[in-house]
Amino acid sequence: MKENISNEDIRYRRMTAEDLPAARQLSLSVLWPHRLEDWKFILEVCVGFVAEDASGVVGTVVCAAHGKQFASLGMMIVSPSRRRQGIGRELAARALKEVGERSVLLHGSLEGQALCEEHGFRLTGKIHQHQGSVFRAPFVALGAGERIRPVSSRDEAKLIDLASRATGMPRGTVIKHLLDVANCVAIDRYGELIGFAALRKFGLGHMIGPVVAPDIERAKVLIAHWAGSYASSFVRVDVPGWTELSPWLAEMGLMLADHAVPAMTRGEAASPDATVKQFALLSQTLG
User: Fold this and answer.
1) Are 266 and 155 in contact (CB under 8 A)?
2) Which residue, 144, 133, 126, is CA-closest to 264?
3) CA Rg, the chain, in Å?
4) How many C-beta neighbours within 10 Å does residue 268 have?
5) Nearest-angstrom CA–CA distance, 213 and 206
6) Which single residue of 16, 21, 24, 211 has CA 20 to 30 Å from 35?
7) Tens digit of pLDDT for each residue in 162-183?
8) Cβ–Cβ contacts within 10 Å for residue 233, how many?
9) Quick one: angle between helices 172-181 and 156-167, nearest 10?
10) Predicted TM-score of the model (pTM)
11) Enclosing H/E stretch for 225
């Protein structure tokens, strides 16, 4: 069902750092756990737009360009009191105008799927959000000549290369910013990095992601490393449905939250390298 257009009192403009406390309150109103620091990280990487009325900010959306061909949209929120008034449609239109002709990735809500389809998005997959306290971190063996080690600034170029190949999109900007707020470990095989996983503070606890690896067993090694390091703490990890990691994550205490999140694409989908895959997202906003 389409929204009824009745938003003459709404003003639309670019988001600024001064809007972040209000944006956080808006996300809390729809039960999203983002801290103010999480919003700051998002705005460092993204361009944002807000809708506001006399009461303040009542809608948000952000977009990020990943090179000249790809972009992502996220944090599309409308205050429950102002829904079905065309605000979501207008915010989406402004973000899409900002990214231009790029192909766009969006992880949206089931409620907003119809609106996204109006803007030319099509369903391309599902994201499974797992969260909870780890009560049993499994042991997963590494291969010959492999070890887990912390990354350093010297590894940045290799991390960007792995992340870009795994997603099919340039990831230099997001990885550079991620390394400012996250801890990161890599699988080193005879001196060569073949996979990595980041962990950062997020929401109610910590978030694992992205997780980039050549196969599911090494992805499990990386996830188990961080899950074991933060056993009994609240941890979240968002994995594409195709990974089939959900049963394994649930066994260690990271339960599936509610329903799967639609993964949608507008334009031509990215073509990842077949030799390395992204088994967990950096975030639903940034892919």
Assistant:
1) no
2) 126
3) 19
4) 10
5) 20
6) 211
7) 999 999 999 999 999 999 999 9
8) 13
9) 130
10) 0.92
11) helix 216-229
Burial 149-174 (b: 16+ CB within 10 A, else e): eebeeebeeebbbbbbbbbbbbbbbb
Token output for 92 = 């989406």
Alpha-carbon dihedral angle through residues 274, 282, 179, 22, given to the nearest 10 degrees: 160
C-alpha 262: how far from its chain's center? 12
Identify the CA nearest to 68 among candidates 278, 270, 285, 265.
Answer: 270
Which position has the token pair 């990487």? 45
In angstroms, rounded to a whole number, what is the distance separating the alpha carbons of residues 91 and 95? 6
Residues in the chain: 287
Distance CA 12, CA 87 (A): 9
Helix axes 20-29, 36-45, angle to 10 degrees: 120
What is the tens place of the pLDDT at every residue in 228-254?
999 889 999 999 999 999 999 999 999
